[in-house]
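Notebook B, p. 112. Complex prediction, attempt 2.
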Amino acid sequence: MKTFAYTIKDEVGIHARPAGLLAKKAKEFESVITLEKGGKTAVATKLMAIMGMGVKCGDTVNVTVEGADEEKAAAEMEAFFNANL
Amino acid sequence: MDYRQCATEILRELGGKENLISAAHCATRLRLVIADNSKVNKGNLENTDGVKGVFEAAGQLQIIIGTGTVNKVYDEFIAIAGVEAASKDDVKAAAASKAPWYKRAIKTLGDIFVPIIPAIVATGLLNGLLGGLSKAFPDIAGSQIYTLLNIFSNSALTFLPILIAISAAKIFGGNQFLGAVIGMIMIHPDLVNAWAVSGGAETSTLWSWFGLWNIQNVGYQGHVIPVILAVLLMSKLEKWLHKRVPEMIDLFVTPLVSVLVAGFATMTIIGPVFSQVETWVLSGAQWLISIPFGIGAFIMGGVYAPTVVAGVHHMYNAIEMMMLADNGMNIWMPIATAANVSQGAAALAVALKTKNKKTKSMALPASLSAFLGITEPAIFGVNVRFMRPFIAGMIGGACGAAVASLTGVYATANGVTGVFGFLITTDSFVGYLLTFLVSAVVAFVVSWFMGIKEDVPAENQTAKPQEIDVPAKEYNDDTVYAPLEGKVVALEDVPDATFAEGVLGLGAAIEPAVGEVVAPADGEVSSIFDTHHAVGLTLDNGMELLIHVGINTVALNGEGFTAHVSEGDKVKRGQPLISFDMDFITSKGYPIITPVIVSNADDYKGIRKTDSAEVKRLDELLTVEKG
């Protein structure tokens, strides 16, 4: 299991568009990727669940990656967060 | 009106009590100081029942509620917000750090004058009545009752500096009785009355600065600014001494030194310098309105209403008082009347023309109130919101003021305008009547023909959730019904790659015809953003649906949007979810095309959009094929 924390820098938080991109990215991997913020969790492939977390700018999201390709998935997800959020 | 409800909504829309620094109210407005103005949802505030207008001035968020109700809303407001009832002084102090100095100065001037207006109105009206009576019955002028009442009627103006000093001392935090003493010194009977001096009375030297500058023993009857400055100095001095003088001797040293130093400085420096400056300001205003052929008055009548919006109109009390002190002829008041009456007439045109009930119910009383001289409800509640009536009012005001100037209308007191103004313009009744009529008629006609853009009322209508109204037909689970009315657009044609490429899921888009999103089927709100521009639903049939109003509208930060549901709410088919102001969003440059997306599209084999070019609410929009 790999985990990392990321603090959102995007002004609008994880809104529809970034959430969609995030879900799309998460679907590329075999590993199960979960996001957690303030007690709410969401499976990263579920757009509605991500949006339901209501992540805003400045919030810290804990990302957990678990599965066969977790090394690669965690690295790419972290890169995705850095690039998009 | 439910005062508590109104107060609760106001508090919510301004960002909760955390965002509130202090609260006070005046005759018509709640005056609030807000920590972070960007958290205030002005659109929703304006739509709150009971709120007639919202604007920011002098570092305050001012919410127009109206005479007689503002205090009740205020009581509820401070009860639920848990703030101490602040005096205007506190609010002013809190706002002070935000407003530029000149605005603060003008505001202070207003704060000083507002409390003494009843005194001026009482004696001013009496003055007007007496003047009218002595015109109608010349015999009355020599009677005992006339002599007696005449004393009543000019007392407030004769002793004006004392009233101003008392009020100013309160504002500046000094002792009000010491302030009164400063005022008394300035109009002491041993000084030659300033009015007598303008009538040619002899004066002698009161004080000489090294023989270079001789100050005459003239009183400050009718002066305003020197009194305020003198009291400001006294108050500062008094507070400074209180902190430093040992308590044992504070009681006699502090008042003595404060009055002595402030009084001396007032009579030998402040008074002489500022009575000169004041004379210049007075001449400036008089010069403007003395430009012949009514041109100056025309300009002043036109710009008067915008100065009310800017909140600088309280300063005019000082000009009027100076005019009255100078020659007893207040030619400012007819200009103010022209400006006020015309705003009322413009609002009346709106009241008669609008089809929107809320606008009508507000415009009518606001208009009447303006005819009586209280213009805030008409200006802020109606005219400025539609802008065109406001401009119509300015045009009417300019024309009316020009008429006043050309016919030589003047008032013999101040403190009232509009209909009551007839009582203090008995010397020029016909001219005043003409001024009144021209202002009203011009403003009404211009306002009538300019019309109003009913976009704001349209927003009002959609802001209130409508009754759930579900067309009677058979609904099935394989169909997604249109959550809003409009033209159907293929998702690929949405001007945004994220939607067009199906990143968020598959579906279709609607170019809305009406600014309201309803639930297409029973389900639960799985997400609604703080910015109220998008809603995610999980329908009872397992489908996840994202309805995203407009493109990039997240940047509007909720402005133009009203959400009727919150996250986790169960919703019924046809229930309103979000209302939005289409004109506003378009005016900000954002497309209002609204993608309706099945976000768990992977769970279905296929999603097909309807062939119809247009859909009504809850018409078929998408058909899905279960996987």
